[in-house]
Amino acid sequence: MIKMSSNKSRTSVFKCWEPRKFVCATQNDYEEFTDIERTLHLDDIVNHNATTFSAIITNGRRSYIKGKGSVLWFSIAKPKDEHHWYGNVSFTIKLQDLLEHFLSTKKMYFMEIIERRSSILSRVILTSRKLKSLKPAIQFEPSEVGFPLFKSAEGKYHSLKTLPEYNKGHELEFMIDIADEQEAQWIYSSCRKVVVNHSLGNSGAPYTCHKNHSFGSKPSCTSSFSIEKTNEIIKNTLHVSSKSYKNKTEDIKDDTKHNLSELKERRYIELSVK
Questions:
Q1: How far is CA 195 from CA 47, 97, 249, 259, in A?
Q2: Do 75 and 37 touch, CB atoms closer than 8 A?
Q3: Which helix (H) or strand (E) holds 227?
Q4: 124-167 pLDDT per residue, tens
Q5: Phi, psi at residue 154, to the nearest 5°?
Q6: What is the pTM of this model?
């Protein structure tokens, strides 16, 4: 299946393939990782003022997933100093923690393969849906080499980094199918907030601003900031919105974990996801 979107000046094309085992893959084609992240723009965080991911959650309209429901999209976490094309603030969680919490009620399926000009993207979904509603998705065992996610005998998770048969690099995305508000709340409160680099959002280079520059669209990114600038804006916004706590305002630090009750109690900006 080929998906295509266009505007007056440009057409973006990518191929969407049904999932299958990568028979050419070996253990040398994988690299270890621990964390996954969901990154969003600073303006989305400030403007929506949400208290849970479900406030502005996205659905699965760009995948094979059928029927009603909402999903949270995550990718493998990158160092905060590297450019993040999804935005300025990442919600980060260990994949092991996520799976330990949900695998009693959800199963994992290989959803689809997206072939782009420069890379291959595999999507894995964690869901309680019946398999027939997800076809052509396939259930897979992470301990088996040949799928986008591999779990070693030592219990460590690995992602495919290259696909020799495509001669392209490989990326892995996770779709967390949210059943109710309680699930969304658990993920929200379990994530660490990490301010990340989005300073190249208006550079014009490929994959620098997903929100504003995907599928041929080229509006200016209003949140093209460095880590330092984003931290400064967050601190100033908190100072303005927390007058009764103006002498107790704390700096927002990278990699700091706040639970939801603490955020409400201190009248901090409530972080949201789009």
A1: 17, 21, 18, 17
A2: yes
A3: helix 227-241
A4: 999 998 877 777 889 998 999 999 999 999 999 999 998 777 77
A5: -85, 0
A6: 0.78
